[in-house]
Amino acid sequence: MGDWGAQPWDNDEAADWFHRFWTKGFSVLIDEIQNFDAKEEGYDSFRAASYVLQTMGNPYVWPAEHGDILKELLDKSISVLNSMVDPPNDDWGFLDMWAHDPKIIESVRHQIRELQTRRSEIVS
C-alpha cells in the first residue's frame, strides 16, 4: 500500500475507496461506517468515509433519503476515530501501522473535531 501523507485521502486504500464511493454512491459510505471492524484493518477506507461524512454531513447538505441515520453515522465515526488514536485493546493496530506518527494522530484528531462540529448541528 502506498502512503504519501497524513490526510484521509493520502494513500492507495483511500483512493480506491473514493473511486467506489463516486461510482456507487452513499451506500458505500454507510456500509463502511456501519460495518467497520478493527480486526479487518480497513482504517484508511474508514478515514476516507469519515472525511466525506465530515464534509457533507451537515443536515442541510446530507441526502434526505439517508437523513434518519446521519446522527448514528456521525456518532460511530467519532467513536471509531477516537479508538484509532486511543486504542481500547490490541485489536486496534492503526497507530502501529503508522508508527505512531504525530502527524497522523493530529490529522485524525482534526477529523474528530470536524465530525463533532457536524454532530452539534443536528437538532435532537
Q: Can you walk through the features of this model?
A:
The protein has 124 residues and is mainly α. The chain has one domain. The protein has six helices and no strands. Helix 2 packs across helix 3, helix 3 packs across helix 4 and helix 4 runs antiparallel to helix 6. It starts with 11 loop residues before the first helix and ends with a helix.
What order do the helices and strands come in, and which of them pair?
Layout: H1 12-24, H2 26-34, H3 43-56, H4 70-85, H5 94-97, H6 102-120
Helix pairs in contact: 1-2, 1-3, 2-3, 3-4, 3-6, 4-6
Tell me the domain tally: 1
Structural class: mainly alpha
Beta-strand content estimate? under 5%
Helix content: 55-70%
Count of DSSP H/I helices = 6
How many strands in all? 0
Mean pLDDT: 94
Q: Main sheet?
A: none
What are the defining features of this structure?
single chain, 0% strand, mainly alpha, 124 residues, globular
